[in-house]
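re: ur question from the group chat, yeah i did fold both. here u go
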Amino acid sequence: MIWLDNSSNYTNFHIHFIIKFLRYLGISPDKTNIIFDGFDMLNGEFSNDSQNINYINGNVIKNFKGFLGTDFDEVRDLITSSFERKELLEFLMKYMQIHMENFRRPQSLNIMYDLFKRK
């Protein structure tokens, strides 16, 4: 939180926070095969198995990888468009719904979309 108080560019902070929080929830993705282009949502691992119904690839996975292993100071330029932020947040919400039985999508998500809207 000290970083947030001292920073002037925090448009990606909420995404970075959620990704780091996954570890504390016990559902952090397995980064062993991070070089693969896709991600298996059910098993929480990077994969190239495009036949798997839980497989997702594309720009959202590229952005997801960009946040894994980064520090707060490095996240400001990872995603520059509000569309990409929204896409990654929706991906994270779906991932959390799969892995947390009673997870409900936060009502404040639409407020966050408006708050961090740029370009």
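okk and heres the other one u asked abt
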Amino acid sequence: MALHGPVQRPTNAARGSRYSRFTASIRAAIFTRIMTEACLFCSKCGAQNAAGAQFCRRCGALLGGVPQAITTGPLGVIPATSERYGGFWIRFVAFMIDLILKGIIVLPVSLFMFLIIGAAGRAVSMPFVGVRLVILIIRGVFSALVSWIYEAALESSPYQATLGKMALGMKVTDLAGNRISFARATGRHFAKYVSGMIFFIGYIIAGLTERKQALHDMIAGTLVRRS
């Protein structure tokens, strides 16, 4: 009959080591749970966002969490959000208003340039065609400069909109609803040339996309919201 040696009981040091590992794992689990509940993850791109965020900071998608400002109704049903965006036709009306306002600036200056350049052309016996070409080039550059400064400066200002958009209750924001910078407003302005190059389809799709984004909005990462 085989004899067994005495049973080795764990020492105090071993028991203390196991207890330390156990408590460390509990603390890690609690910390992970707290951190998970304190943030929201985007269902589209998986990016981590703050608990109170409504839109993903990376892709701009609406987050699955309920915004803090929204409360449930008497039957526990969450009311739909009232977020509205500027579609094609209301933007078109705003564009026409802005076009008139910019024309008020450009037209008098263009007439003044016509007189100055015309007088200089006659003084050096420049042909009428040459004078006309110089006037068209300078007027085109001046008009483009006015349009750029007008849109970029106002859309990046605290008003977040051109005068035409302000009149119709619209403003330009980034995908998270924040005010855009002058650099982004500049990029959005020049991206409009791309929208117009393809038979103005880049403008037309503002009436077809989910959040009423035109092509230049998609390029610049912006939205046109209605109040």
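fwiw on the second one: The CA atoms of residues 137 and 200 lie 24 Å apart. Residues 39-82 form one domain. idk if thats what u expected
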